[in-house]
From TrEMBL:
Organism lineage string: Eukaryota, Metazoa, Chordata, Craniata, Vertebrata
UniProt key word tRNA-binding: no
Protein name according to UniProt: mRNA export factor GLE1
Protein's organism: Sula dactylatra
Function field: Required for the export of mRNAs containing poly(A) tails from the nucleus into the cytoplasm. May be involved in the terminal step of the mRNA transport through the nuclear pore complex (NPC).
GO cellular component: cytoplasm; nuclear pore cytoplasmic filaments
InterPro entries: GLE1, GLE1-like_sf
Length: 224
């Protein structure tokens, strides 16, 4: 609900602003340690990405309440946004977008990790689980670029707005499709855009429909 989101947002914003907040039954403040604020920036950005990887992957609509809080915090505390992108790009290189190439001297296990797979005891995770995690993170990213904190000052530009989504989509279509991954991520990205009110279509109009036509008539046939 809106009141719950506002309570969460205010608590995070207060913590980042140097105010004391209650956490785990005790009072904490970033001023308690010289690197306190840097640590909280880093862990908060990591937490947002983890929520995409875990919560959004399992509950797709969770992307929107998480994104609206993340977008609002990003607007007030830009460092969180920079670190969010860093964590996102590391866990999901397709959010750049980037398909890492296998280089000479790189072990297969290391390469699998570069691609975003979880590897434990030299065993790579199942493809379905991998795609689910990647989808969750891309869906959260797609929601963030088009949502803004409704209770803030909207006079300024979105800290990471629709132009970044348009750029991501164009860059994806300039790369050769990767089996399973590309189609899955394009679907989640565009579906998230649709749920949020066809934001890309409203922003780019005719150019957006040209992009959709390109996907249907030129890009998807490359999977055959």
């Amino acid at each position: 609900s809106g009141s719950q989101l506002r309570e969460i947002f205010d608590k995070i914003n207060n913590l980042l602003s140097g105010k004391s907040v209650q956490s785990g039954g005790r009072t904490v403040s970033v001023t308690q340690h010289p690197q306190g604020l840097d640590f909280v920036y880093y862990k908060l950005a990591e937490k947002f990405v983890n929520q995409g990887e875990e919560e959004v992957a399992s509950h797709r609509d969770a992307a929107f309440p998480i994104a609206v809080v993340a977008s609002g915090i990003w607007e007030i505390h830009p460092r969180v946004g920079d670190l969010f992108l860093a964590h996102l790009h590391k866990k999901c290189p397709y959010s750049v977008p980037f398909y890492p190439a296998l280089k000479e001297g790189t072990s297969m296990e290391e390469y699998q990790r570069m691609l975003g797979y979880q590897v434990k005891d030299s065993k790579m995770e199942e493809q379905d689980h991998f795609l689910k995690r990647m989808s969750g993170m891309i869906r959260l990213y797609a929601a963030i670029i088009q949502l803004r904190w409704p209770y803030g000052n909207k006079q300024g530009a979105h800290p990471h707005g629709l132009n970044y989504g348009w750029r991501w989509l164009a860059q994806m279509l300039n790369m050769e499709p990767l089996a399973d991954v590309t189609a899955t991520l394009l679907f989640d990205f565009l579906e998230a855009s649709d749920v949020c009110g066809n934001a890309l279509m409203k922003q780019y109009q005719v150019q957006f429909w040209k992009m959709m036509l390109l996907i249907r008539e030129d890009y998807f046939p490359r999977y055959d």
